[in-house]
Each structure stands twice: as structure tokens, then as C-alpha cells.
Amino acid sequence: MRIDILTLFHEIFDGPLSESIMKRAIDKSMVEIFFHNIRDYSEDKHNRVDDYTFGGGAGMVMRIEPVAKLIEHLKKQREYDEIIYTTPDGELFNQRTANTLSLSKNIIILCGHYKGIDQRIRDIYITKEISIGDFVLTGGELAAAVMIDAIVRLVPGVISDETSALTDSFQDNLLSPPVYTRPADYKGHKVPEILLSGHEKKIEEWREKEAYRRTKKLRPDLLDE
After folding, report:
1. Of 2, 64, 161, 176, which residue has the fewest beta carbons closer than 10 angstroms?
2. Where among 94, 124, 152 does a domain terminate?
């Protein structure tokens, strides 16, 4: 998988992508991540990429030319499965979206900034607009980092135990059941006996019931879906 990130502040990704599973995936070439500074494609002598909004109002808008020039440059080199724009008014990112995107070969992620980007970029180039929640961030880099982590961990081989990802919360619109490890008794707080029984079928039935119970209690909206 190749992910091209269009950004103004690529340094924000240094932490999330240089540790743990993400670092291992990159080091083993299971995923390739490339950063492209939008300012490098500005036609302004000061490398400005924003301007005042037509019609007046607060906030600046990212100009069309540098973004379009960068996207066109990348599209000449390869085909992209999705060109994603991180924006608070996009569709809510969830596990289903992560599953789908993990099957992609090439993805572009455009990190939003300012009051937004010129609408014509969204109309002409963007194939999917994604939000990670009903709140506003300073920029789209953190949202992109969250999405990349969720997507890349699903790429075959990234997680050594692939069945682990398949039993994560939200995979079946259910939260995960409670999990326990040693000791079996901690100051009188004991692990449920069924988990110590060795009876695989009954353990699986218990986990399914607990997953449903927790979902009904904590996220009943998932059951509506």
C-alpha cells in the first residue's frame, strides 16, 4: 500500500509513524508513506497557499492552484483508489471505512487547513471526505494520522496475529467483550470461571453475550445499524 499525504506540517506525523506497529510496517515496506508539502507547489513568491474568502467573512481559504497542481502531478504517476480530504463535515470515519481502505493500493490524503479548501478542489478531485468526529482541529494532520493507524494495522502481515484485528471492537458492530490475564484472583477480584474452563464453545458463547451486553449498555446506537 502507498499513501501520499498532502500537508503543510509533515513534522506532526513524526511521532505517530515512528513508533510501534506503524514503524514496523514502514520498515518492512508493507506500507509506503510519502509526504508532499503543498507550499512547494505554490505560484506565490512567498509560497502562500491561502487567501481571503469570496463574499467576505472570517477565516482564510486554501487556494486551488497549489493543491490542484500537486494532485495532478501525483495522478500522472499512478492511479489512486481514493483521494481523501480530512474535514469536519465529511462522513464519520469508522471501522467499516478502515476495512475498505485497507484493501486499497494507492491513496492520497489531503490534510485540511484554515476555513477549508476551495470548494472546486472538492468538486473536481476529492473522491471521499472523512471526519474523525464532530469537532474541529487546527489542521487535518492529526485526523490523517488516526486514519492511517486504523487502516495500516489491517494490512495483511502488519499485525503478527491477524485474527486479533478481526476480533476488535466495531468489526461486527459490537464492542469487544471484557478480557483478562494472570493472576486469576487479584485481591478477591476473580476472572469469570468460564474463561478458565477450557471449554472453547462455551467461552465463545460467553464472549458473544458479553459483547452484546456491553454494546447495548455503552453504544446502543451500534445495534441500530
Report:
1. 161
2. 152
